[in-house]
Amino acid sequence: MIVAIPREIKADEYRVAITPTGVSVLKDDGHTVLLQSGAGEGAGFDDRQYASSGAEIISDAESLYRQAELVVKVKEPLPEEIAVFRKELVVFGYFHFASSRELTERCLAAGFSAVAYETVTDSDGYLPLLAPMSEVAGKLATQQGAKYLEKPMGGRGVLLGGTAGVGPANVLVLGGGVVGTTAARIAAGMGAQVVIMDIDHRRLHLLNDIMPANVSTVYCDRQSVRTQTARADLVIGAVLIPGAKTPKLITSDMLKDMKDGSVIVDVCVDQGGCVETAKPTTHRKPTYVVDGVVHYCVANMPSAVSRTSTQALCNATLPFARNLARAGLDGFCAIDAAHAAGLNMRNGKLTHPALIEAFEDLPCQ
Description:
Elements (H helix, E strand, L loop, with lengths): L1 E4 L14 H9 L3 E5 L10 H6 L3 E3 L2 H7 L2 E3 L6 H4 L7 E4 L7 H10 L2 E4 L14 H18 L21 E5 L3 H12 L3 E6 L2 H10 L4 E5 L2 H10 L2 E4 L25 E4 L20 E4 L2 E4 L9 H30 L1 H4 L2 E4 L2 E2 L2 H6 L7
Parallel strand pairs: 1-2, 1-4, 2-3, 4-5, 5-6, 7-8, 7-10, 8-9, 10-11, 11-13
Antiparallel strand pairs: 6-14, 12-13, 14-15
Helix pairs in contact: 6-7
């Protein structure tokens, strides 16, 4: 199969979908690998490394897509990319369709097949291709939240861990999955008082057992969210419903009860966000203020640490990319339910149940 690796064109996206080592593996499997020139530079991999691993370097994206059978990329395709996609093409990457009707309609009209990292799901509900970036995003969420709590950054001027004679910050984490657990652990390690909210009682029991003493758990209902956000110096949104749009747990009226200069980091903004006032931002302009509350809503947070993120992502995705290149789309979906769950659309129709529910009026299988 002809596997293509494009240069990402989303604003401030520095990751690349496959490392030079991954190219070597695909070449050993017997595939042709095309790389758009400069695709790996943002993650510290140059064209010479890819060429030595067996990739053919292509200067422009249109030529790359014209030859490709399978495109492996990181972020959702932008309109100029979708415009040159063909019906026979399979694209493997992050899409987050539920958060954007416009993206969904454009991709359906193009007719290609979309296999999404974020919906590959095993029998235990684990998301193996989302988890590595969720871990990175969770660590960054606390790191960025701590930074934007600083007064010069627009925050309250609060140190997460406090100091001798001065109490620590209050951190609220909405969601006890990979992002939330990681964010909470980092915040606790910095000395903050942390509350994790979730609706899964089993998960709350587990978190009670494994988290340090400065982390507590609270069942997530509307009144509890209102109470906890009013206390918080930093709120981290880490809610995920695989393939679906994120529910709005923090409404705009709740902001009026929050402290001036408090910070919200909405990690799930790429799925629509769990904060009503959240809108995607970029690394170059990451924050804005609503009712005195600083909002950090960068939609591709892991790109800030592109070298680490690329390596972590490729460690997880390469086995699936190999299966897709080896078996083709039908064979890939037949391997098991985890692989099949990755298929989001095919032949101009939605295939994933969460998307069919989100967009009832769009064509579906």
